[in-house]
């Protein structure tokens, strides 16, 4: 369903909106030179405008689109409150383009979409805004905020869901809840590497300095090599991008960071080829929002645990087979009539056997019984009871 800017509400949104890019710029902190976001001023066909932005790590995903003056269909996005500072226009909402967002050019009449948008401030607003340019917002960094989280009860407590439902949720409503989905891995995104150098105390990404690796909380530290693997997944409702850290990532992709060296430039260290073996395989994933995503109110899900669908199906078949082996099934005893009449097996045969043409009962004249057994058989015929021979 197509939405307009005035119809947007906070939280994830799996519908689409058609917008024109009035302006596009990069936001770089002047004090540190850190590239923190790619920003946009969007307008819709009703003349309304909204500030949009995306993480610079996703810049390559939109390098060929979102050009100034052009109109695009934007699907699966998130509506958030205003940024801490440097909002392009007044209002209550901003538009966040994240990993699962799809941007498609559309060929429509651009006349209804304003090419420029101006919001005029009063003198009171100008006086109150004098401190805006003296503050800045800290940039993004890779961090696993839950390095010691236990996985034991994840599958028992997680709520069943699917991708389209997760993409439409409000991060604040999700909180610490976990969700379980069944999805197929469609690709790995190693454009930013498959590990990072983290602080052993808090897991934050370390800054490479001329004198060593620096943590903003714990000062200089000997870095830990922490696996970090963004993966693309798909189910029968939608697609999304997830991230998985530490041993869970190493187990899933069958990789190891044990022998990864600590280098100033680690771009030359490629992920082992066998990591791509998980592509096209199905898994049950337990997902949740890490702490920094909750703090930033962003729908960037982390994989807390996983199980292979194939392994689970094999296990179910094996258990089913064992159940059949232990049930009491009709038993066909083979042999001639005399052997059947006196057979009292202590243990049932291990397999059920079916009769063949050669297993037809012998004719009465072919029976050869001991004379002492005849009275006993006569008694069984007359009473209808069978007695155990001595």
What does this protein structure show overall?
With 390 residues, the protein is of the alpha+beta class. The protein folds into two domains: 2-134, OB fold (Dihydrolipoamide Acetyltransferase, E2P); 154-318, Beta Barrel (OB fold (Dihydrolipoamide Acetyltransferase, E2P)), CATH 2.40.50.140. The chain contains nine helices and 17 strands. The chain has helices at 123-128, 154-157, 163-167, 171-174, 246-253, 291-296, 309-325, 337-342, 374-383; strands spanning 2-3, 11-28, 35-43, 49-54, 71-80, 94-97, 102-105, 159-160, 179-188, 195-198, 207-209, 212-215, 219-220, 224-234, 239-245, 282-288, 302-308. Strands 8, 9, 10, 14, 15, 16 and 17 form a seven-stranded mixed β-sheet that branches. A five-stranded mixed β-barrel has the order 2-3-4-6-5. It is globular. 25% of the residues are buried. Mean pLDDT is 78; it is low at 132-141, 323-355 and 364-369.
Overall geometry comes to globular
User: What is the CA-based Rg, rounded?
Assistant: 34 Å
CATH superfamily of the largest domain: Nucleic acid-binding proteins
Weakly predicted, low-confidence segments: 132-141, 323-355, 364-369
Number of strands: 17
Mean pLDDT: 78
Strand content: 25-35%
Helix fraction by DSSP (H/I, runs of at least 4): 10-25%
CATH-scheme architecture of the largest domain: Beta Barrel
Indicate the structural class: alpha+beta
Number of helices: 9
Please outline the major beta sheet.
7 strands, mixed
**Count of discrete structural domains:** 2
C-alpha termini separation: 85 Å
CATH fold descriptor of the largest domain: OB fold (Dihydrolipoamide Acetyltransferase, E2P)
Give, in order, the helices and strands.
EEEEEEEHHEHHEEEEEEEHEHEHHH
CATH class of the largest domain: Mainly Beta
């Amino acid at each position: 369903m197509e939405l307009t800017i005035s119809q947007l509400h906070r939280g994830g949104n799996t519908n689409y909106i058609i917008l024109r890019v009035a302006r596009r710029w990069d936001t770089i902190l002047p004090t540190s030179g850190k590239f923190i976001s790619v920003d946009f001023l969007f307008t819709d066909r009703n003349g309304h405008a909204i500030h949009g932005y995306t993480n610079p790590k996703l810049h390559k995903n939109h390098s060929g689109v979102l050009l100034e003056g052009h109109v695009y269909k934007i699907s699966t996005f998130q509506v958030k409150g205003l940024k801490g500072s440097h909002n392009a226009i007044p209002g209550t909402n901003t538009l966040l383009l994240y990993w699962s967002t799809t941007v498609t050019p559309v060929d429509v009449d651009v006349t209804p979409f304003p090419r420029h948008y101006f919001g005029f401030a009063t003198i009171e607003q100008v006086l109150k805004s004098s401190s805006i340019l003296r503050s800045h917002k800290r940039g993004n960094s890779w961090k696993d905020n839950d390095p010691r989280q236990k996985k034991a009860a994840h599958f028992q407590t997680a709520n069943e869901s699917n991708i389209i439902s997760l993409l439409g949720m409000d991060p604040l409503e999700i909180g610490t809840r976990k969700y379980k989905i069944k999805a197929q891995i469609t690709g790995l995104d190693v454009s930013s590497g498959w590990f990072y150098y983290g602080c052993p105390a808090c897991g934050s990404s370390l800054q490479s300095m001329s004198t060593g690796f620096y943590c903003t909380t714990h000062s200089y530290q000997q870095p830990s090599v922490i696996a970090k693997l963004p993966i693309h997944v798909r189910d029968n409702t939608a697609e999304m991008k997830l991230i998985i850290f530490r041993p869970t990532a190493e187990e899933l992709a069958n990789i190891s960071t044990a022998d990864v060296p600590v280098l100033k430039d680690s771009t030359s260290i490629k992920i082992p080829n066998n990591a791509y073996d998980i592509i096209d395989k199905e898994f049950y994933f337990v997902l949740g929002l890490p702490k920094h995503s909750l703090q930033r109110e962003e729908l960037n899900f982390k994989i807390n645990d996983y199980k292979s669908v194939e392994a689970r199906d094999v296990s179910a078949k094996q258990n089913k087979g064992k159940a059949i082996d232990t049930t009491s099934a009709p038993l066909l005893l083979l042999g001639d009539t005399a052997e059947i009449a006196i057979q009292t097996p202590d243990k049932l045969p291990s397999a059920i056997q079916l009769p063949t043409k050669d297993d037809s009962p012998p004719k009465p004249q072919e029976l050869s019984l001991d004379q002492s057994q005849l009275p006993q058989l006569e008694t069984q015929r007359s009473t209808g009871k069978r007695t155990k021979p001595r």
